[in-house]
Fold this sequence. Notes:
Blueprint: H1 6-12, H2 17-26, H3 29-34, H4 36-46, H5 49-62, H6 74-90
Amino acid sequence: MIALLPIIEQLAEAADHAARARWLLRCPLDILGRYEGTIRNRLMHAGFIAGLDYLDALRVVKSSVRGEDGQLTGEQVLLLEAAGLRLAAAAQPAPIADHSVTEI
């Protein structure tokens, strides 16, 4: 068996989608790019669609032509922001259900 980088092991051991989202938000972009196939595999196996969408957005932007000034275009920024916001929402812990009895 091939040993994973410790940071990739953290993703593999993530307990839920919120933990996976937090991992993606903290992970260095270089790691996300260099080990994209392995990361994508872990996310697909877990069924974490928001994480896959985030990786897709990163891939699209890093392979797109930037503006003449060398900066990201407005569309590229919007794509990254939207994917990041969805990921940030997924990173929030699930609300705890209140099953207490209340008066009517």
